[in-house]
Sequence to fold (430 residues):
Amino acid sequence: MPEEKKTKAAERGRARVLTAERQQVELRVFHLDGAVPSEHRVRAVWAFVEGMDLSGLYSEIGSVEGGAGRPATDPRILMALWLYATVEGIGSARALDRLCGEHLAYQWICGGVGVNYHTLADFRVQNGAVLDGLLTRSVAVLMKEGVVELRRVAQDGMKVRASAGAASFRRRETLRGCMKEARQQVAVLKRELEADPAASSRREQAARERAARERKERVERALSRVKELEEEKSTTKEKEGVRASTTDPDARVMKMGDGGFRPAFNVQLSTDAGAQVIVGLEVSDAGSDSGALMPMIEQLQERYGSVPAEVLVDGGYSGHSNIEALDGMTTVFAPVPRPKDPSVNPYKPKSSDSPSVARWRRRMGSKRGKRIYKERAATAECVNAQARNRGLQRFLVRGLEKVRAVALLYALAHNMSRMLAFGMLGEATA
Fold:
């Protein structure tokens, strides 16, 4: 700094600034409801939950008025927390627990009720049947309002990474060795627990025994899974190559969208093309979509008492057996495979085609068929992308049943967002 400027700075004196004072005691008046703006999305989430029929969850609560026992956490609070967290891209129970203590919107949902990650985790994975029923009822409401017509749906599969490492997959002989070790470990820990006189050590030992027992159960499930997979194989060489995970036996190695192979689950979503509302959902360990079309149509029939007039799917579903099986039930719009010979017209029926396959070829070659099929990308792929953006990149739970419960939460959160877009949840905006 030049001498002239230094002199002027010295004459001017020390600069005055506002510094942090963290030891000051303050008395504040705080109103939780008033701290959340009226247009905040969390209020719309609560309105959505208040409209749900959660009687099944309340009926399972053991603590009743006039009786003994600690009051249970209101299921509406837990449901709203998970729906709001899902919309915000939060998929971890521990992360949600932390936000309930730090973030105003989550505190507003709790309303002074304490929650912990264990309660949150249990609620999410133990109520799959309830979540499935809520999905059906949410769509039924939209159908009653005329938002969902269920006339044309688009179905697509989405491979989601499982919570299992590639190194956890073992062949039958290796699994048998793991089983022997697991049984020995359980027996040793059980003897140590019975002989330990210290209470604190017993608790620690009990936790270790429980972990060993759960590992033994997973290995047993993996052995059973290997047997199931071997039955699907035809040759001895294929059977010898079958492996199952000791971390999550229900997971299967699949080819992912980037061309790599990783343990994953296949999430099938069926979406109404007009409203972009998820109307059907299934989770499987199948690496291919070829066998998922008919079960989804049957699921829609069971949920809503009718099947869509038209269904839009990609080439993974367009096997001739699917086209023939659905003939008379619904009209399938799926791309016709390109022949190796470019001079061959793929839309011209072949002599070996059944009547339903011949109609499908002509249908996809028409201008109307091509125009209708364009809606698939704007429907199924758009919904899948939104689920990815909300954090559906990897499941943090293990087991097909728990994975399906998490996927159902994503479907409910998506439909709730669509109701917000339709102005059906008050003045809050998405």
